[in-house]
Amino acid sequence: MDERARRWRLVLGGAAEGTLQGPLDGSDADMDGALSALYERDGGLGASAPKVARWLGDIREYFPSTVVHVMQKDAIERLNLSRLLLEPEMLEAVEPDVHLVGTLLSLNRVMPDKARESARAVVRKVVADLESRLAQRTRAAVTGALDRSARTHRPRRPSDIDWNRTIRANLKNYLPDRRTVVPSRLVGYGRRERAVQREVVLCIDQSASMAASVVYASVFGAVLASMRSLKTSLVVFDTAVVDLTDQLHDPVEVLFGTQLGGGTDINRAIAYGQSLITRPSDTIFLLISDLYEGGVREEMLRRVAAMTAAGVQVIVLLALSDEGAPQYDHDNAAALAHLGVPAFACTPDAFPELMAAAIERRSYDQGPMVPARTTP
Q1: Other CB atoms within 10 A of residue 16 CB
Q2: Per-residue pLDDT tens for 256-286?
Q3: CA distances from 264 to 238, 269, 291, 316, 373 (A)
Q4: Helix runs in the chain, H state only
């Protein structure tokens, strides 16, 4: 079978048997069997733990990890395999990823003791992978932004001079005959102080649709909390609010302190977040939510307006994930936009630049971010 026919046969499944030059054999037949078990109605994967465990092992052998993650997510959703994930042997067979962590967190309250340590091992591996990928970039972006945000009129080295601001400050000294600006006043980047320079409040919606965002936000919260120049607080909410700031040294503990699902009271969460702010003009308030409010909407908007009037930078992330913007409340997004509060989805890779832009109070690059539509 030529390569093109082979690929089409794997895409089309058993319905194409006999129409594309002949049957599959060897590893191709095994790959086809793994795909059929999940995506064909009579595939036979079912909800048998031994069968599913073998299938999980097969897909890890035949497909790259990116495909494995998609197939695992589809299996959990299509075949309702969540309960099987409470078995330790099943957890040992899966390929850990952000979506699997979200599923495990949603089962946290019903998880038996025998599965809890296996679940923690899965979550710990995903968190370690995310930290290795994102922590250094986040610290570098935030540190650079804090350095640039500190201005001085006596820069010590040429590399400390902010040439754009220096030129703007000296335009009155332009010499037309020489076509040059005489820089009588220098504007430079100051050296970052050791004291706390910014307060960051992460306020995270625990509704089921925000599972991936909860995972990423918890990891970023731990990274930010490790920086002495930032005072970082993290709260999660549904209809109640839980302050997990004292667990930020361990993002795994933060994640197991969440309870995905349930209602949403954004107003109550914002009220609690407000109480954590001591320096409004130096505070970045990140609300990570799809904005479906189950509390008092008008009061929520009044609180946001009060924070922005006091100098707090309020940013709404409809999602902090790789999937883009989820379903969200368009009316609330529009009302927040009217208050000057941006609402958009942000990928994890774009989050360090978002934090840098917030620290420097500059506009956000919409390239890796998806702005909210303010009409349905």
Answers
A1: 13
A2: 998 887 789 999 999 999 999 999 999 999 9
A3: 4, 9, 9, 15, 22
A4: 3-12, 26-39, 49-62, 65-79, 88-93, 98-106, 113-149, 163-169, 211-225, 251-256, 266-275, 297-309, 330-338, 351-360
Domains and CATH numbers, the chain: 3-95 (no CATH), 135-144+194-371 (3.40.50.410), 151-189 (no CATH)
**Residue 234 phi/psi, 5° resolution?**
-135, 125
Residue where the block lists tokens 């980047």: 189
**pLDDT-derived band at 58, boundaries 50, 70, 90:** confident
CA distances 103 to 70, 76, 172, 283, 326, Å, are: 14, 9, 62, 33, 17
Amino acid at 213: S
Q: Is 25 exposed, middle or buried (0-12, 13-18, 19+ CB in 10 A)?
A: exposed
Q: Per DSSP, what are the bridge partners of residue 49?
A: none
Give residue 326's identity as a one-letter amino acid code. Answer: P
Helix (H) or strand (E) holding 197: none
